[in-house]
Amino acid sequence: MSQEQILSSDGIPLEESLKKAERKNKLKAVLLVAPLFLFLLIIYVFPIGDMLFRSVDDRMITKMLPKTFQAMENWDGQDLPDEPVYKAIYEDLKYLKENKTYGKIIARLNYEKSGFSSLIKKTVRKLKKIEEGNYKEQFIKIHKRWGQPEYLVALKNAAPNWSYAKYLKGMDMRFDQDRNIVQVEEDRRIYKILWMRTINVAFWVTLFCFVLAYPISHLLATLPMKYSNLLMICVLLPFWTSLLVRTSSWMVLLQQQGPINDLIVWLGLAADDNRPELMYNVIGTFVAMTQILLPFMVLPLYSVMKTISPSLMRAGKSLGGTPLVSFVKIYFPLTIPGIGAGCLLVFILAIGYYITPALVGGASGSLISNTIAYHMKSSLDWAFASALGTMLLVGVLAIYWVYNKLVGIDNIKLG
Amino acid sequence: MALPNHTPLNYRIWHYTYLTFCGLVFFFLIAPLFVILPLSFNAEQYIHFSAKMLALDPEGFSLRWYEDMIYGTKNPWGLATKNSLIIAFFATIGSTVLGTVAALGLSSRHMPYKAAFMALLISPMIVPLIISGTAIFFFMAKVGLAATHTGIVLSHIILGTPFVVITVTATLSGFDHSVTRAAASLGSNPVNTFMKITLPLIMPGVISGALFAFVTSFDEVVVVLFLAGLENTTIPIQMWVGLREQLSPTIMAVATCLIVMSTLILVSAELLRRRSERLRGINH
Lengths: 415, 284
Description:
The complex is a heterodimer of chains A (415) and B (284). Chain A folds into three domains: 8-46; 60-160, no CATH class; 192-411, MetI-like (MetI-like fold). Helix content of chain A is 69%, strand content 1%. Chain A contains 19 helices and two strands. Chain A has helices at 14-56, 60-64, 66-72, 83-99, 103-112, 116-125, 135-142, 149-157, 165-170, 191-222, 225-240, 243-254, 259-266, 282-305, 310-318, 323-351, 355-360, 368-377, 382-406, and strands at 173-175, 181-183. A two-stranded antiparallel ribbon of chain A has the order 1-2. In chain A, β1 (173-175) and β2 form a beta hairpin. Chain B has 284 residues and is mainly α. In chain B, 75% of the residues lie in helices and 0% in strands. Chain B has helices at 9-40, 51-54, 64-71, 77-107, 114-126, 129-143, 149-173, 178-185, 190-219, 222-227, 235-245, 249-279. The radius of gyration of chain B is 24 Å and the shape is globular. Chain B starts with 8 loop residues before the first helix and ends in a 5-residue tail after the last helix. The interface between A and B is large, with 90 and 93 residues.
């Protein structure tokens, strides 16, 4: 027996009509989100993709020495290549010399193998003396390195359009001439230290923030409204104040002749002519970042603690638990969501911090962000800056993913 | 929080230790801001408390650094303020409109892949600014918008929208949808319903999101550092440059003005939050 279809007023089956309405609503919701989504896609997601692309893009050298790489394709990389390769190098270098653009390849090739700089410079200088025919012999005469296979192997190794060499550099590793991945020399391992310091600072700042924020969030959540509102200003005013203002106040406090050093001298902990350096090192970074990020820990903790009924603690007491036991067994477990939210948020913010370490951190207190900025603005190694940025981004997105799983993005509360 | 008379001594000690600790943390949070205020009125050129200041001698104080801030030629604070306000104004409008509209869609129960969209739309708040700055710089340089106000405004819209999306979706979570249905049943078209019914009800959330967007843009320095030319200098950029050279009392004067501004914003944000909670019927 077939069930009789219910019809809506205009004669269409209700089920169909409902589906149509649902589809319409769905489309409406999507259309509302679409403008921001597209805007973000074009000005944000696409540029970040472009940044990833830049970090592995290594086409410059292939574009500048096209004939060389074409000629090298038939060479096995064992003994010295034959005449056509040298002829191709000659033609490529001649073209670059005429356009005065050979400077770029020197840096790139020298990164592949040191010694290329003088090799290319000398060759370019003597290029006009080279006569047609027998290029190989003439090249070796100009510089004996043209007769050493390892330089030509290094040149061949620079051929691929894509390279993850910048990522290796960011982890203190490199390719040796046989394309094996090796660690760089002991005294040149700077990025591992930098990553460790960044993670270290982020970890300790998060821990300090937690230790400082937990008691005051508890106080704010348990005090009567009229007092807690007043104290909340102490948390919210720094939260709303410009980051640069807060950093500059720490620069005032931590400077050598500043109030904190005055206090240390007054307490007799240090001699007046031997004031401790509190700024331009990792201490400054720690103290300033902890204070600046503290509100981001207090707010999620507070909003969770606010929902915990005080009668639970009283119930714990009435059942014979000491305050400590009731705290450990009842209160603390209930605050764990807030702890998770606060710690992840502070850690994410701390790991990418730039302004404060740059101003109060000095050399020993600078973090990975500062290095990215350095390579963007000073050394102009944009590919390397992009690679470091991508590595940082992957780390942050991983924590963001965990945050989303544990806390849920829609549970972020502001103010 | 007075303790009852019968409280044992060790609890008493514990309780007062806890209160002292909290007091110290509050002090740690708020005190650094107040160091700046007196120093901006320093009559001398140094950034520490002079003997005259400590003795509260009127001669130790002066307004000369405020004068320098307004009339001084060394730092173009006037241009910076103008730029900051223009950029923040347009960025706020852009983020508020885009963010509010998107939040309306995200709050609809018909929205597919809600969590994924939300995670993406919030991401500019989570991704370190240095990465956003790098990526946006490459893009703006490519399309020829580097060192223009437009480029900076567009990137600040990106950075501001997450705040608007968060505050407006939070307000919409307590929104009673039967009122819009009532309006529709009375013959109102969707646009009219939105303008007359929905918008006034979610207004506190929209304004508080707009405040966040404004502050984000007004205070943003990393992206502007990458994008700005000399013409586009902003207050944060001038402060950044000044702080890198040396601490000057003029910067303290600017900082004081910014603290006054943030106090005003804090008060308005707080009032809005309370109004929003009252409208949504949340009572403490």
